[in-house]
Amino acid sequence: MTTTETPYLLRNEPDELRRLEEQAAALAPATRTILRLAGIRPGMRVLDLGTGAGDVAFEVADLVGPEGSVVGIDSSARALAWAAGRTEARGLTNVSFVHADLHDVRLTGPFDAVVGRLVLLYTPEPARVLRRFAGLVRPGGVVVAMEYEMSAAGMLPSTRFGEQVAHWITEAFERSGLDPLLGARLEAVFGAAGLAPAVVLGLQSYRQPGDPTGARMATGILRTLEPVLVRTGTATPEELGLDTLEQRFHRHQTDLELVFRLPTLVGAWTTIGQSRDH
Ligand SMILES: C[S@@+](CC[C@H](N)C(=O)[O-])C[C@H]1O[C@@H](n2cnc3c(N)ncnc32)[C@H](O)[C@@H]1O
C-alpha cells in the first residue's frame, strides 16, 4: 500500500477503534435508514470506503444478505485487523477487507454500490475521491456518502458548558484543515464529482437526561483530539479535564435535565447514469 496524503487525524489506536464502535452504535438507526432509502438491497455487491472498525460494512452485509457481499477499504492495518476479528466473531462470510489508500487503490468493478461514512471528511479533495469510486459503480447502481454536520451537536436548551465542549470539537477539526460542516455541503461535493445527488437528508438523534451517550461521545472524541487542541493552543489539558469530563458532562446534563443533540448525520446518494438535470 502506498500513502501519499496527510496522516489520518484520528489515528486508529485501540481506544479510538473502541470509540468508533460506540459512535457506530449511536449512529446505527440513522445509517440503516439512509442505506435503505438509498436502495441498498439483497444481492448487491458493495464497496465501503474508510471502513474503520467495520460497522458500516456490517450494516450493509445485513441489508445485502448472503447473496450479496461487501468489501471494506481502509488505509489502517490496525483498523482492518480489528474489523476482521469482529467479522469472524459475527460469523459473516460475505464481508472482506482491502488494505489500501483511497487515493491509489486499484479495484476491479463493477460494484452495485459504493458507500462511505465519516471518511470523505479526512480526504483533502472529497469530490476527487467520490468521482474515482463512482467510476466503479455500474449504471443504475448507487453512490452513498454519510458525513456529519457537527454544528448541530449540543445541549438543549443550550448551556455555556455544552457550547464550550462543542466548540473544542469543531475547533479541533477546523484547525486541522477539516470541514466540520461537510455533511451540509455534500450536494456541492457530489456536483463537483460530476454526480447528481437525488437526495441530501440529515438525520438527528436526541438523547434524554440520564442517557450516557452524549457524555461518552464527547469525551471519547476529545480524548482522541486532545493532542491537536493542546498543540494549537485551543485548550490546555487542565481546561479539558479529560479524567473527569465524562462524569461532569453526564451530571450537567442530568442535573439540569438537558437533552443532548448528536451531530446531524447527513446522507447523500445518487444513481449512476442519472442526468444532472433530473
Ligand atoms: C472516522 S473513521 C470512520 C469509520 C467508519 N466508516 C464508520 O463510520 O464507523 C474514518 C476511517 O477512514 C479511514 N481513512 C481515512 N483516510 C483514508 C484514506 N485516504 N484511505 C483509506 N482509508 C482512510 C481511517 O483509517 C478510518 O478508519
Structure description:
InterPro entries: CFA/CMAS, Methyltranfer_dom, SAM-dependent_MTases_sf. The chain has 9 helices and 10 strands. With 278 residues, it is of the alpha/beta class. The chain has one domain (14-271): Rossmann fold. The chain has a 7-stranded mixed β-sheet, sandwiched between helices. A 3-stranded antiparallel β-sheet has the order 6-9-8. Strand 2 (69-74), helix 3 (77-89) and strand 3 form a beta-alpha-beta unit. The protein is globular, with a radius of gyration of 19 Å.
Record the SSE blueprint.
Blueprint (H helix, E strand, L loop, with lengths): L13 H25 L6 E5 L5 H10 L4 E6 L2 H13 L5 E5 L11 E7 L8 H9 L2 E13 L4 E3 L3 H16 L10 H7 L6 E5 L2 E2 L5 H19 L5 H4 L1 H14 L3 E3 L2 E8 L7
Helix pairs in contact: 1-2, 1-7, 4-6, 5-7, 7-9
The structure holds S-adenosylmethionine.
- Describe the largest sheet: 7 strands, mixed
Helix fraction by DSSP (H/I, runs of at least 4): 40-55%
The CATH superfamily name is Vaccinia Virus protein VP39
The CATH top-level class label: Alpha Beta
Per the CATH scheme, the topology name is Rossmann fold
Mean pLDDT: 93
**Proper CATH architecture:** 3-Layer(aba) Sandwich
Radius of gyration: 19 Å
Small molecules (ligands, ions, cofactors) in the structure: S-adenosylmethionine
Strand content: 15-25%
What is the terminal separation in angstroms?
A: 39 Å
InterPro entries: CFA/CMAS, Methyltranfer_dom, SAM-dependent_MTases_sf
Pfam families: Methyltransf_31 (PF13847)
Protein name: Methyltransferase domain-containing protein
Keywords: Methyltransferase, Transferase
